Amino acid sequence: MPELPEVENLRRGLEKNIVGQKVLRVEVRKPKLVSGKGNIRTASVKKAREFERGFKGEHFSTIERRAKNLVFRFASGKVVLAHLKMSGQFVYKDRGSNKIMTGGHPIELSEKQIPNKHTHIIFELSKGALYYNDTRMFGYLLYYPSVEAFEKENHFALLGLEPFDKKFTPKYFLNALNSKKNKIKSILLDQDIVTGVGNIYADESLFEAGIKPTRIGASLNINEVKKLHKAIKRIITRATKVGGSSVATYRLIDNSRGNYAREHKVYGKGGKKCVHCNTTLQKTLIQTRTTIFCPDCQK
Q1: Active site residue 68
Q2: Torsion of Cα atoms, 152 then 158 then 163 then 165, to 10°
Q3: Spatial separation of the C-alpha atoms in residues 62 and 90, rounded to whole Å
Q4: According to a count of CB atoms within 10 Å of the terminal CB, is the N or C end of the chain lower?
Q5: Catalytic-role residue among 12, 65, 68, 227
Q6: What percent of the chain has pLDDT over 70?
Q7: β-bridge partners, 131
Q8: How far is it, in rounded angstroms, from Cα 102 to Cα 117?
Q9: Catalytic: 251?
Q10: Which whole-number Å values give the CA distances from 2 to 48, 74, 246, 267, in the listed order?
Q11: Amino acid 178: pLDDT
Q12: Which residues contact 44 (CB under 8 A, 6 or more apart)?
């Protein structure tokens, strides 16, 4: 699943290409993808028709990001909330140049044919077309007829602070961790204290801070919390700057690949030597996610 740096770079690419364009037509081929946000959803033809009718004639105004979600806002106040989940992909095709730009999880067929059997939602725009493709169909795009309707649902109620929020301070972090009895890696994955840090950046941040991923959250002292706070902010900033981590060939909207994978110290390196002490990096499972750490450098 893409994390904050990957989603933020995808947002920037989409914003550059589609903001200001008018929606001429919308086609929903898989109602399930617009019918709810859980992994188990019942396809609603009614919601699909509302989605198709709701955006015709509308203009894209802005694209925002909250945690790993994209929020497409329209000039009229209507909103689309999108989450790529495990295998979602946006493809933009410019009508004038026929140039195709792909962002998200790679789908080989999309490089040869668009739309294709994995294309489930199509926005025909004034200058091109935006396609949402998804092989496993865990992702979703949700329609809200107004800002009020979007805010009323309070979709982000359980999310913690963004890493760059001024309120995300070491003191806030320490206080939030004080009551946590589960593992620090699990806490980071849960998103309810700080958002956008998934499997990759949790491993990298914990390594940089010298904290073992199996430590109980409440056991961290103020100095350890300060180190982890600093590591999260530095790593997320750096990863965003270089386009994120193209693990499994994740693509940005201009078809380029993020370069932060070249800077990974532990993620995906189980069994290899630690870059600091030459100890063999160990592997464990936390929340079913493969977790890599150094038994010497991380305490």
Answers
A1: yes
A2: 40
A3: 16
A4: C
A5: 68
A6: 94
A7: 91, 122
A8: 16
A9: no
A10: 26, 24, 9, 14
A11: 95
A12: 31, 34, 35, 36
